[in-house]
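Support reply, case 0932

Customer input (verbatim):
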Amino acid sequence: MDIKKLQTLVFDALEDVKGQDIQIFDTTEITSLFDRVCVVSGTSNRQTKALAASVRDKVKENGGDIVGMEGEATGEWVLVDLGDMVVHIMQPAIRAYYRLEEIWGGKEVKMGAAKRAPRASKMTAGPLDEEKPKRSRSKAAPVEVTPDMMAIQTTVEDEKPKRKPRVSKVAAELAGEKPARKPRAATATPKIPSGGRVKVAATKTATASSKEAAAKKATTRRKTAE
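Our regenerated output:
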């Protein structure tokens, strides 16, 4: 089988099972054992086994030969030998540890760019020299003041009540006018002049005591007279 057809079949088989970070390297100048090396990542043991099975079935359906498969028992690193091409299906930790790209990564073969249709970007969607219309901010037209409007404004100002000007105390004294004082509020209790006496009403107890004292004095006088 032609090497270009073989590498295309392998790439399609790995993409069908969602293989991650697919890389194919041309090793014709490094070794004479094989022409291509493919390295791909699988997130779990189940996915690595499924990727290996997909490559095997795809190549067999198109008349290719499967030389051998290794590592299917553990699923951490599955190797599929296709004769002219070797496929390494590895989990991310194993791939980061062994770094096969540094050994066989002399010349990488780009597969995805030729298979996928280019997407038109926003810059290339339209002509480059086409300018977008600039937004113009509309300004309000100036209002023309007519004589009728001036007359209405004058009438409104005349109808407003005018406030009396405030006269300060200093200006009132200079003019000979005394500012009116506010009347003081009447107090509840009248003021007592100094030196005066205040009459206080006698209580019931004091009245009864005075009566008893007067009665005793009268009794004493009677006895003395007898």
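We compared this against your earlier run and they match. Two observations from our side: The chain has eight helices and six strands. The domain at 3-110 is CATH 3.30.460.10 (Beta Polymerase; domain 2). Please reopen the case if you see a mismatch on your end.
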